[in-house]
Amino acid sequence: MARIPPAVAAVRLAVRRALPADGGLVLVACSGGADSLALAAAARFVGRSVGLVTVDHGLQAGSASRAADVATWAAEAGFTPVGVETVTVAGLPGGPEAAARTARYGALEAYARRVGAAVVLLGHTRDDQAETVLLALARGAGPRGLSGMPARNGLFVRPLLDVARADTRKACAALGLTPWEDPHNSDPAFARSRVRGKALPALIEALGPAVVANLARSAAMIAADNEALDTVAAEALRLSQPSCLEISDLLGMRGAVRRRVLHMWARELGAPGSALSHRHVEALDALVTRWRGQGAVHLPGGIQVVRERGTLVRVP
Questions:
Q1: Could you tell me if 87 and 182 are in contact, meaning their C-beta atoms sit under 8 angstroms apart?
Q2: What is the rounded CA–CA span in Å between residue 129 and residue 112?
Q3: What is the rounded CA–CA span in Å between residue 124 and residue 135?
Q4: For residue range 252-279, what is the model confidence (pLDDT) as tens digits?
Q5: Per-residue pLDDT in tens (0 to 9) along the chain, 316 residues
């Protein structure tokens, strides 16, 4: 029996560990790049019921033809169902990267619901996780940002967060697959591209190649700590009245827990998580710990919160 190339084995093992135990339909999100192509091939090999969907963002010449090529390959390789989702990025909030991401995830979730998929597999690798941590550090994002991309988030599963990008390329080569090279990945107009092309290579040169795995491992440890603190905060919020928060209760909490309670409460009031920032939470915290008679805190979604008779309340 021919020996399986180590890179192919690594990707297959990672995917096998991520598949749902009940054998439900698994959907692979595949752009045609090396990471998602290696992921798709592994899922098709180890899974029982595997489909594939590719998203055409319409941002580059020939994108529709490229999406059709990915779908044709998937159908010939035995994936079922196979879908092409076309999205419109223009008009969505955030910069180009954020808008494309919002459109892509919305399309993936909608398609998964239509076909009854149990999970959607995404091809993010250990290198992607390291880049995410560096970007979060640059933004001063705090623990929530430094935890990186979760391995599981609702429908979405990232099996390759412990697999190196180099291994997905090696796996494609070993399997005779030709990946598409997205020009956006090397375009210096995008922050992630600059991290990938300059910042992370500079760190590797200065600190050694282990820095990539160490950054990814740090993200996993911070994510575990966040989960524990979020559990404590959720329990504290559950014991509070939904319409208001008692200042005396908030002052009795440690800062890390209190700020999480405030963040969760703001979300419950209707503030969209994508727009709710550290600045908003710090302003709420100031109503509790640095009260000087200041006025309302304005949260995303047109929500206002004031301190009134020993409580934080939403302005009607």
A1: no
A2: 24
A3: 15
A4: 999 999 999 999 999 999 998 878 888 9
A5: 568 999 999 999 999 999 988 879 999 999 999 999 999 999 999 999 999 999 987 667 778 899 999 999 999 999 999 999 888 777 666 677 777 888 899 999 999 999 999 999 999 999 999 999 999 999 888 898 999 999 999 999 999 999 999 999 999 999 999 998 888 787 888 889 999 999 999 999 999 999 999 999 999 999 999 999 999 999 999 988 778 999 999 999 999 999 999 999 999 999 988 788 889 999 999 999 999 999 999 999 999 999 999 999 999 8
- Contact between 32 and 72 under an 8 Å Cβ cutoff? The reply is no
3-state secondary structure of 298: strand
- Cβ–Cβ under 8 Å, residues 304 and 314: yes
Binding-site residues from annotation: 31-36
Q: Which domains does the chain have, with CATH numbers?
A: 6-213 (3.40.50.620), 242-314 (3.30.465.60)
Distances (CA, A) of 50 to 35, 39, 53, 107, 148: 17, 11, 10, 18, 27
Query: Exposed e or buried b for every residue in 73-98, given b needs 16+ CB within 10 A?
Result: bbeeeebebbbbbebebeebeeebee
pTM surpassing 0.90?
A: no
- Per the CB < 8 A criterion, the answer to whether 125 and 185 are in contact is no
Annotated binding site for ATP: 31-36
| Complete edge-to-edge strand list for the sheet that includes strand 156-157 | 82-86, 50-56, 26-29, 119-121, 156-157, 152-153
How far is 131 from 203, CA to CA, in rounded Å?
Answer: 11
Determine the Cα–Cα distance for residues 27 and 37; give it in Å rounded to an integer.
13
Count of other CB atoms within 10 angstroms of residue 174:
17
* 262 vs 250: CA distance, rounded Å: 9
